[in-house]
Write a structure and sequence with these properties.
7-stranded mixed beta sheet, GROEL, domain 1, GroEL, alpha+beta, 16 helices
Length: 542
Amino acid sequence: MELVISQGFLTPSLVGEPMSEGEGKPPVVVVSESTSVTSGTAVQEKLIVAARVFSDLLKPTYGPRGLDKMLYKTDGSTAVTNDGAKIVAELMVKHPAAKMMVSMGNSQEEACGDGVTTTMLLCGSLLEEANTLLSKGLHPLTLVDGYRKAMGVALSQMDSDSTPLDDERLLGVANTALTGKGAEAAIDIFAPLVRDALNAVQNSVETPSAEHVAMFKIGSGGLRDSHLVRGIVVRRRVLMDSLPNNIDKASTAVVGSDIKIRKMTRSAEIQITSAENLDGFIEAEQSRKEEIAQALIKSGAKLILCGGEIDRDILHDLADEGILAIPQLDESELRNAAGATGATIIESVLDIDSSDLGVAGSVHWERRQATDQVEDIITIDNCTNPSVVTLAIGGAGETATEEIIRGLHDALRATSLAHETGELLPGGGASHTRIAQAVREASESEPGRARLAMDAFSRAMETIPATLAANAGKDILDSILEMRTAAREGSKTPIGIRADGEVGDVSGVWHPRAVIEDGLESATETSMSMLRIDQVISARGD
């Protein structure tokens, strides 16, 4: 049995069955026998199953009372996280609808750096609400029209609820992004650090972002030992104990290449016939090294950061002049060093000029014993108007520290987005509840069946406060009814689900408007795209 085209539809046909005259042209075989075709409500059921998998997976992780997931990767490594973007990124999905959900989550992460779980929950809820109406005979395009109208109402409500940014609310954005993450144990330390890190670079860059904040794991102490470095921190071996330490206002040169005599690109033999020739060769080589060292010394640099090797003889000459030289920095470290000190990355040492130098406010290196080698921690701090700063994270736990860094990165993304847009919306489910009420009121003036879809949209919005209440162990129905009442009465104070699960004032909980708006738009567009699908054709037969 194979599928054929008959009157515009895929239908089964007996291949090889004799055709009688007068039956017309033979059918055209277009797909193999193993192909399966799903139509009607069964299509929607498959889509809902895919959405429910993500919803059930991510719901327990949502909010300040969310739980963690342990991810066991294909390479055998593990990770513990409640970050929606991280979880989604590790999933190996096969179903096309599931892939659409993953793509939606990735887009939200790339655009905003936060709100992935919210977006997934909203999309799943919109599809579940739609499935209920589809089973009652409502046409998919009617649902699409209703969702589109509801989205327009939601945007208008966000315009009304939008609040301008100030320093206190910026701190609230950082607090909100960190709540429920590994960094929450020291949130009173980390939230100001996130704010201060972005404020430290705002005079040097047009738009402060997470790219301007590096992370450094101290590897000792506790979380409360974390601090902001107005510069960079690197782990490298200081090659000589006699090299200077504790330098203030150090003129800094950043060299992208080796500081040594370049090797010839072609093999050659040098024939020496006498001791005088040998001495002359050695003197010429030494003279070349001295020329390189003198170029650096005359530039006035007191700190040299090098991306390659440093010749031992040159290093001794620099040490004699009280110059600290650090070799073998990678490309990102060189770039960050240049951004922190204001130096220009140079490739040819002989062409160095004083205008290429930057200034390090203070330089200090500390020797620590590692497991297999001696390593030093070099700290460049107190730079004036740096374009790159560093968050030094305390704690010895590798897995826990990685999760903290991931949470801090999300907080930096959210806070920088708030910096960029200047508009905030209240969190704790307050914004989504107000959107739900606005859509519910707008649906009353809708004469057609699209009203049913708008009501479904409003119920889907309440998934956010419902999940927050459920994860805090509170009664969902009571919480939703209380928040509906507050939204209906037009409370000036944002009412949502607090960290303890109670319904109340959430004035200190803020999200960048873009996080909520982009997440809602992505969830709505994805659900509408799925609702337009009326047939699933699988060549694999599953």
